[in-house]
Amino acid sequence: MSESTRRAVFSRAAFAGVAAVVAQAIAWVRPAAAAESTGETTESAAGPVIAKTKDIPVGGGKIIRGKYVVTRPKKNVFRAFSATCTHQGCTVASVRGGTINCPCHGSKFKITNGAVAAGPAKRPLPRRKIKVSNGRIRLV
Predict the structure, then answer these.
(1) Bridge partners, residue 80, by sequence
(2) What confidence tens digit (pLDDT) does each residue in 73-114 have?
């Protein structure tokens, strides 16, 4: 391969790499620009709706797709947590009596903050960030 052919190959490869980086940057910027034009925040535009506020009872909660638990400790207060028990990884099964309940070994977690209310679990349920607007609860 001649020197000029090698340079041409390397030049084309470098150009393709730069083009790929620019295309990715544009893809990241477009959703934010679209959200600004509609008045939405990029957080609410990006997060999927996981529940409707009317479906979450006051003083209780609901397990969503076996992945999340959304609770409603008070009328206008919503919380979301992972549905995976921190004891041995079972999926919690119910929300009753102010606690999120794991069927495997009896751990219970408070609906207000995910803290352990009864063991054997020692760590709280991980909290998930949510945004509540227009009757919808979205992950952030």
Answers:
(1) 70, 128
(2) 999 999 999 999 999 999 999 999 999 999 999 999 999 999
Residue 137, class by beta-carbon neighbours within 10 Å (0-12 exposed, 13-18 middle, 19+ buried)? buried
pLDDT of residue 24: 63
100: how many CB neighbours lie within 10 A of its CB? 26
Residue 18 amino acid letter:
V
> What's at 76, amino acid-wise?
N
Q: Provide the pLDDT for residue 119.
A: 86
Please, which residues bridge with residue 84 across strands?
Answer: 91
Q: For residue 138, what are its two tokens? A: 């979205």
DSSP-assigned letters across all residues of the chain = --HHHHHHHHHHHHHHHHHHHHHHHHHHHHHHHHHHHHT--HHHHHSPEEEEGGGS-TTEEEEETTTEEEEEEETTEEEEEESB-TTT-PBP-EEETTEEE-TTT--EEETTT--EEESS--SPPPEE-EEEETTEEEE-
At 97 the pLDDT is 92
